[in-house]
Write a structure and sequence with these properties.
Length: about 210
Amino acid sequence: MRAFLDGKEALGLPSDRVPQLEDVSAGLMALSGFKLHPAAGLVPLDVFYGSLGDGIFHSTQYLRHHSQPLYTPEPDIIHEVIGHGNLLAHPGIAEVKRQAGKAAQRCETEEGLQYVADVFWFTIEFGVMYEGGELRAYGAGLLSSYGEIEEFRGADIRPIDFHQMATLDYDITQYQPILYACDGMNELTERVGQFFAEFDDDTPGRLAAAASAA
């Protein structure tokens, strides 16, 4: 995916060692205004997503166990830096993440926050995109999983549907069998970005009603 490769080139992370988070942050601040904040493990949803609205990405620092090199359900340094770090180096994608964070900040209900988290999962974490007639991965969860990179084109690929994303059961311990594809970069930065920018606690109910009426 071109935007990821452009961000990767702009950030210029070393390939011979694991970079320090402060070095990654220095590069990101200059490119998109984001910085990485060390996290000991999983961060509560309201803290993790809310911090994105302030340009802060909570990043773990441990490395996946050598017995599971292809995929790990826990976000490790490979996922955080190779996946999210390079994505955050692209201003357009960074802005989508920032808008997701601001949406989370506006949420006053657990339902609303979970809705944001689930749409984020199927876009920023496990999103795919048609680019130049080819299906490309852009989600950080896909980009940081060698195993899933080899498998994602065999998934059930569906068009963007926010309510379906937020109500679909998924298992984080397995390769994702259902993925949602943006039709080019504009659908990610404009349509997905607008969804987060306009989201409030009433959005789930409105989209559920629209889905029932369809």
